[in-house]
Structure to design on (304 residues):
């Protein structure tokens, strides 16, 4: 998987080379200033009630010159961020979603906390607030699939009408389910699980519902949206089976993708958005997307 380096680089002096004529170097922001930029893009008020978002480790007064984005705060991702010299790691998934009573380095999560603090690398979580916000995970997925007239599947309680979990929109032209599934496969990073499809391969589709990450709690909203097909991740046996039983004329068809892959698409867009906000504020920060594939599966066996 290629990284997406959206960092702001030093300007080329392009003149005589004289230090007097060189442009002034933009100052690095503090972590606190980066947090304000993140809040502008992905307000914590948009997070679901059960979620844990925000700063996990780090001192607000610390300077930040390099930021890395990743889906998961795994030990491999943290090592990559530390080795690159990132002072801030922003991950979509929380490290500490459930309560803990110890962060001793005898557990994987404890090791992660120790590695972060000992290396001076802050950790920030942008989870369901990153799902719900304009330009968030499902917006990026919808845009990559070429959807038009996009609206949320469920409107955010504390946000704008265009903010909320999931998206639904229309393709410019009708496609067969098989061709649309191939489009889904083509836009996602390569992972072992591939793409699973439920429905008539030759069935025609145009109205598409999407939810990056696990979306099997939104079937009522998907049906209400009159979507021909629903693209999401982590579809479990019983919800998928029940959705097929309740389908009208076979719809909505289902396309099940990798949780990691569906959310990875957001990272380059998020990195670019944060870079733009910080640049507008006069700050010079390098921003990079993690190269680490944190999808938990390594290979798959299929019939034939």
């Amino acid at each position: 998987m290629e990284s997406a380096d959206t960092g702001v680089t030093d300007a080329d002096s392009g003149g005589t080379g004289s230090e007097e004529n060189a442009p002034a170097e933009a100052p690095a922001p503090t972590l606190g200033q980066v947090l304000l930029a993140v809040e502008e893009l992905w307000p914590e008020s948009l997070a679901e009630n059960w979620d844990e978002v925000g700063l996990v480790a780090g001192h607000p007064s610390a300077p930040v010159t390099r930021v890395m984005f990743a889906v998961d705060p795994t030990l491999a991702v943290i090592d990559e961020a530390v080795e690159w010299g990132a002072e801030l790691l922003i991950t979509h998934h929380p490290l500490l979603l459930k309560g803990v009573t110890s962060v001793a380095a005898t557990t994987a999560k404890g090791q992660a906390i120790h590695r972060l603090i000992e290396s001076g690398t802050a950790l920030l979580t942008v989870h369901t607030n990153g799902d719900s916000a304009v330009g968030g995970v499902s917006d990026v997925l919808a845009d990559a699939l070429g959807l038009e007239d996009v609206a949320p599947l469920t409107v955010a309680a504390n946000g704008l009408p265009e903010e909320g979990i999931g998206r639904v929109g229309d393709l410019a032209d009708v496609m067969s389910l098989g061709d649309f599934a191939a489009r889904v496969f083509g836009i996602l990073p390569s992972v072992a699980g591939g793409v699973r499809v439920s429905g008539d391969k030759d069935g025609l589709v145009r109205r598409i519902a999407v939810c990056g990450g696990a979306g099997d709690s939104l079937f009522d909203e998907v049906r209400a949206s009159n979507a021909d097909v629903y693209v999401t991740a982590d579809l479990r046996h019983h919800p998928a089976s029940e959705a097929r039983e309740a389908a009208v004329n076979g719809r909505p068809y289902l396309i099940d993708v990798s949780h990691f892959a569906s959310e990875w698409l957001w990272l380059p867009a998020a990195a670019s958005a944060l870079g733009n906000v910080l640049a507008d504020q006069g700050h010079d920060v390098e921003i990079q997307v993690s190269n680490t594939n944190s999808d938990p599966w390594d290979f798959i066996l299929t019939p034939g």
The two ends are 27 Å apart (CA to CA). Confidence is low (pLDDT under 50) at residues 1-16. The CA atoms of residues 151 and 162 lie 6 Å apart. The chain has two domains: 31-41+54-125+263-289, 132-257.
